[in-house]
Amino acid sequence: MAKSTTTEAIQKRKTPLPAKQAKRVTVASLEAALLKEFPDVDAESWDTTGIYVGEGAIPVTKVAVALDPTVPAILQAASCSAQVLVTHHPAYIEAPATFAPEVSCAISPGAAVYAAARNGVALMCFHTALDVSNKAQKALPAMLNLDYKGKVLQPIATSKRKGYGQICTVLKQDGKAVTLGQLGARCTSVFGRAPRIWGDFNAGVETVVTACGSASNIVEACIKANVQCLICGELKYHDALALSQAGVAVIELGHDLSELPLVAVLADSVAHAGISRDSILIVDQSSNWAYPEAIRL
What we know:
By secondary structure, the protein is α/β, with parallel strands linked by helices. The chain has two domains: 5-129 and 259-284, NIF3 (NGG1p interacting factor 3)-like (Udp-n-acetylmuramoylalanyl-d-glutamate--2,6- Diaminopimelate Ligase, Chain: A, domain 1); 131-258, Udp-n-acetylmuramoylalanyl-d-glutamate--2,6- Diaminopimelate Ligase, Chain: A, domain 1 (3-Layer(aba) Sandwich). 31% of the residues lie in helices and 22% in strands. It contains twelve helices and 13 strands. The strands form three sheets. Strands 5-6-10-11-12-8 form a six-stranded mixed β-sheet. Helix 3 (71-79) links the parallel strand 2 and strand 3 (84-87). The longest helix is centred in the middle third of the chain and has 12 residues, at 180-191. The radius of gyration is 20 Å and the shape is globular. The relative contact order is 0.18.
């Protein structure tokens, strides 16, 4: 299958980065640098931020970055001689009960931990602390050409500038408001897959809230803020139904598709921590699933 539009966009991302490694980086110093950008104090209380597996003193010359810390991603990182795999999603929420050399955490909850330890790959995860960060907030609005001024729908306790739900304005085209159908088509063009849309395709949309991943925690806030459309990774059926009936259109991109841009954010942060861009491997996880109509049989 050809690379997705999202993957190509990530790989073509142009950000001023150091041309070569300027200092000695260890697993511990890399974690410290990333925690400055995505501090654990910003994360949800149930979440764990930073190192899950690894020895702090190990020197780091190559880093792999991915959305999910799957066993295949860990093995790919190891095959490319990466000492660290940095991911958005965590290796686990609750400590695994078993650790075994399996191909999936569905078979043994600690399969990823086992694979990382066995192959000498440190696992470092930044989940909800990344979700609410200023860098992550800009990702979806920028890709969808939405006007985002830095205001969030639901700020976190530690900062009014960080939080969930980016309040954006949809710029008019030829003096006319963009319709929900046109906005959905824009999402298809950017991400390479048709989203699930709730609402009137002919209705004009001016105010949009974007949210990576699940947006169930901002449903009520969207209604109270008189938002016209929510663009997110996913919603539970009843939440999407309730929102659409309340006059808030919903565009569901797919949980992983909406968060793949955060992999580029992590890669940039790893580079700023002192790892040269040439030594950062982005693990392509954009083809985990597909629509049947997108495949020629």
